[in-house]
Amino acid sequence: MTATDDLIARLSADLRPVRRLAPPMRRAAGWLGFATLLIAAAVAVFGLRPDVAERLRDASEVAQWVASAATGVLATIAAFQLSLPDRSPRWALLPLPAAVVWVGTLGLGCLAEAGQVGPAALWPGFSPGCMAFVLGLGLPLAGSLVWMLRYAVAIRPVPVAVMGGLAGAALSAAGLWLFHELEGAAEALVWHAGMTLVVVGILLAFGRSWERRAAAERFTGA
């Protein structure tokens, strides 16, 4: 046996098969199931809002809730797709239409209420409960998704982190709607959509830090 053959034999002696990742849609479905269980547990603890049946008869309210949930689901799918090197970066656009509908319906709700009760309807009240729930649940959910996709640090760390933040926050906002009563559309716009932007901003900063750290490690390794 030559020295080269001996080296190859020694290097390959302890190799173990690499476990292939499940398809991205299957992993996205698994994470969404986990997120749904957490949100359902929170709703069970706080209880459904007393006017939920009335709100479900309001088409604009239902549109807001569905758009919020759809934004979270589509952002989750986008994050898992973007974590793979052979996927198009355009996957980051997947949740955009749902997010536009979500914010748009909230904005139209603000204008409708302003037309009924005057400009005072455009001034949102302070809602620490909304802020605490979207941040308190949205950030851990986003963190768990990004942790699942930590191998993407060498691929697209910033888009993956941003999609993770959007997924966690939008799903948390959808869950919040089920048990938390709001004073008006302006309050929902600021404390639901607004706190979603805060979570996305935090994950954006994390993604950039993640990217810089990975680049520094590659440079040091070189």
Automatic annotation (TrEMBL):
<feature type="transmembrane region" description="Helical">
    <location>
        <begin position="185"/>
        <end position="206"/>
    </location>
</feature>
<keyword id="KW-1133">Transmembrane helix</keyword>
<feature type="transmembrane region" description="Helical">
    <location>
        <begin position="126"/>
        <end position="148"/>
    </location>
</feature>
<keyword id="KW-0472">Membrane</keyword>
<keyword id="KW-0812">Transmembrane</keyword>
<feature type="transmembrane region" description="Helical">
    <location>
        <begin position="160"/>
        <end position="179"/>
    </location>
</feature>
<dbReference type="Pfam" id="PF06532">
    <property type="entry name" value="NrsF"/>
</dbReference>
<feature type="transmembrane region" description="Helical">
    <location>
        <begin position="62"/>
        <end position="80"/>
    </location>
</feature>
<feature type="transmembrane region" description="Helical">
    <location>
        <begin position="92"/>
        <end position="114"/>
    </location>
</feature>
<protein>
    <submittedName>
        <fullName>DUF1109 domain-containing protein</fullName>
    </submittedName>
</protein>
<feature type="transmembrane region" description="Helical">
    <location>
        <begin position="29"/>
        <end position="50"/>
    </location>
</feature>
<dbReference type="InterPro" id="IPR009495">
    <property type="entry name" value="NrsF"/>
</dbReference>
